[in-house]
Amino acid sequence: MVVPSRALMHQMDLLNVDQSMGMRVEIPDYNTAFLNTELKGCVSKISELFADREFPLEMLEQKLVVGQNDLKPFNIDLKIELNYKIMGDGLEDAVYFELTAIDAYSNKQVAASSGQGPKAIGATTIELLTEAVLNHIDKFAGDVQKYFEKMYEKGRETELVVISEEYSLDEEIDDMTISDFIDEWLADNCMNASYSVDSQDEALFTVSQAMIPLFDEKERSITAYNFYRNLKKALDEKLESAGYKTKIVRGAVGDKAGTKALGMATIIVESL
Question: Whose CB among 173, 244, 251, 268 lies 3.0–4.6 Å from 261's, allowing a Cys bridge?
């Protein structure tokens, strides 16, 4: 999915400020942005160039009808941020552009390209952008393809947090601590047993770079929430005899609630 970058939204004065939670957050107004025929045309053209290279992309404008200006409801594998700026005197112009591909699960950059196209007289912004991008898009698309091939082989990067304020994760049930149980489950279920335990104590167990499959048995894209629900079920069975259960939420909790909603899950241990 091609998405206008924050820099472009700022340039268009379409970053709305929300301070309702006590923090200043800038929220892009995508619905208003797509009323701008130039931006709409530029996003459509970039999507068309990718489709020509067998990379069909979902259209953000159509998704907004469902999401009401919010990207969070969308299960986006890869977000391609577009930024561009007109360079010239109004008579003979060129376009400088930036394309950045970001894995929506890990928020990591996986490909990037930038450049300035040739100057032209009387050309539209869409025409100038097309000329500027054409010299770079094949390498950019190739880098994206290599990233997907790597994920298919090694898995997609996710994070997991297990929080237990009432019951010690160091407590043994059937001769195994809860922390060890989680560790063993990850080793058995992560692709190539690939994951990193970042911190571990009686109340907190955090994991990063945990590699999960791209698709389930029905070829549906797997989120961290979908994947770790099986761990939640296994923990519920383990903890039931001690009078505890778990709940699972998408993304982080607390001050960072809602972040990394696709690539992160939080499991919370609580009383029955």
Answer: 251
Return all residues near 171 (Cβ < 8 A) that are at least 6 apart.
Answer: 177, 178, 202, 242
Residues in contact with 158: Cβ distance below 8 Å, sequence separation at least 6, in sequence order? 105, 106, 210, 211, 212, 224, 227, 263, 264, 265
Give the model's confidence band at 69: pLDDT under 50 very low, under 70 low, under 90 confident, else very high.
low
Helix (H, G, I), strand (E, B) or coil at 125: helix
Query: Where in 72-194 does DSSP place strands (E)?
Result: 78-88, 92-103, 109-116, 120-121, 156-163, 172-173, 176-177
> Are 80 and 46 spatial neighbours (Cβ–Cβ below 8 Å)?
yes
Q: Are residues 82 and 98 in contact, defined by beta-carbon separation less than 8 angstroms?
A: yes
- Give yes or no for residue 4 having a pLDDT over 70: yes
CATH architecture of 2-151: 3-Layer(aba) Sandwich (3.40)
One-letter amino acid at 120 equals A
Structure tokens at 59: 């259209």
CB of 39 within 8 A of CB of 47?
A: no
Instruction: Kindly list the distances between the CA atom of residue 214 and the CA atoms of 122, 150, 176, in Å, as whole numbers in the listed order.
Output: 46, 11, 31
pLDDT of residue 66 exceeding 70: no
